[in-house]
């Protein structure tokens, strides 16, 4: 888990004191009003009497609490809830950074923190009020993984609980967090794992991933040609706060404003930049939609599909033209919410091609239209409908088809910290048929000589190589192209090392991207 974070010391009260009169007789354990506060030298309390303790919610911690509550109670996504809560409470840049680290850190570390809390609570965690448990997770993250003084973490978390949960629960939270503060994170891990021999269980607790995901990542590494010994590096990379990736839409946007405001040029793909965050919405290019937030892995797979030479029987596809010099037609089969579609639209505009972006959900189709609004309107159209029907309705109509299928999202756990606790192995079985049907539709929709890019934000072989192998086995008019070489051709390094047996897999611990999978399939002319 991340050790970074704002100190937050300004939100604390003051350094904790051992007592008001030394460690001797009973009088030393009474305050100025004569109330006995310390019942023994072995117990430690805040310096403030109950009437003086914080009774209000610090805004940054309140934002984190509201995010955790929305995730748990409403099945919300933290990356969507957090910006809205930050704006609602009017946090400045420093407090917004604190709230972000606290929200994401508590969600990422939930499994580890729950193991610690289980040692400090006198009942199963499932019997606690969910709001109380979220407050405990927030306090535990501050105590074990942020540079927040213990007295500030305790006082402010208890104050939060008093303000939004109640005085009774705040007493429980105070007592439990005092037990948590007795050890550092590494000391707690030693206590929790001292007798554990199963390496999967050890990794699960130490790196805060469910055991099934640890096993899935081991399998994924091997399936994509990586040594299984990289598992701890992969899990650790999932727990690092991701850097915000930007893309300037080719021919439409510029990174100048972002670079002037602290962003640095991207090292993997042209037109990209890395930002430490902040309020990117204040950049005019971001507001105009010509500069967008997009993981560099997504940028790479989209550019790889576009740059690949086609193999039409009649004519050449050079310079972005289809057979006999006609304009290429592109399809983004699963376009919502529109990030890759916007990049494809800009590239289509440069190459004289057109783009059809398909999305089945009307509200997400609206997001796709908004994402494409910076691209000239004669270049693109949005279709609202089932992607599985496009291949039948428009057979062999497109030169390039991107099918970024719905998946478990195991490759983006660092950006979606709640997903690791929300996903289950059953999701793999449920999504498999849909992934295969969408790929079939894409293959039906592509012209002979055209290319289909099958993409997932997951490294799991059940969602990647198994789906591609099934499609190739059922048809004799397809050929698998070298996706690793295609990625190298559009990268600034020229050698990503992502390819394995003609498919390609990006990794957060190697490439500092989401774990994007790419297979490039050409329909034989």
List the helices and strands and how they pair.
Elements: H1 59-74, H2 78-89, H3 93-108, H4 110-120, H5 130-145, H6 150-164, H7 167-180, H8 185-193, H9 199-207, H10 211-223, H11 231-238, E1 244-248, H12 256-260, E2 264-265, E3 272-275, H13 284-288, E4 291-293, H14 296-307, E5 329-332, H15 339-351, E6 354-359, H16 362-372, E7 380-384, H17 390-393, E8 398-404, H18 419-422, H19 425-445, E9 446-456, H20 465-474, E10 478-481, H21 483-490, E11 499-500, E12 503-505, E13 517-523
Parallel strand pairs: 5-6, 5-8, 6-7, 8-9
Antiparallel strand pairs: 1-3, 1-4, 2-3, 9-13, 10-13, 11-12, 12-13
Helix pairs in contact: 1-2, 1-3, 1-5, 3-5, 4-5, 5-6, 5-7, 6-7, 9-10, 14-15, 14-21, 19-20
Structure description:
- The protein is an alpha/beta fold.
- The protein is built from 21 helices and 13 strands.
- It has helices at 59-74, 78-89, 93-108, 110-120, 130-145, 150-164, 167-180, 185-193, 199-207, 211-223, 231-238, 256-260, 284-288, 296-307, 339-351, 362-372, 390-393, 419-422, 425-445, 465-474, 483-490, and strands at 244-248, 264-265, 272-275, 291-293, 329-332, 354-359, 380-384, 398-404, 446-456, 478-481, 499-500, 503-505, 517-523.
- Strands 5, 6, 7, 8, 9, 10, 11, 12 and 13 form a 9-stranded mixed sheet that branches. Strands 2-3-1-4 form a 4-stranded antiparallel sheet.
- Helix 15 (339-351) links the parallel strand 5 (329-332) and strand 6.
- 50% of the residues are buried.
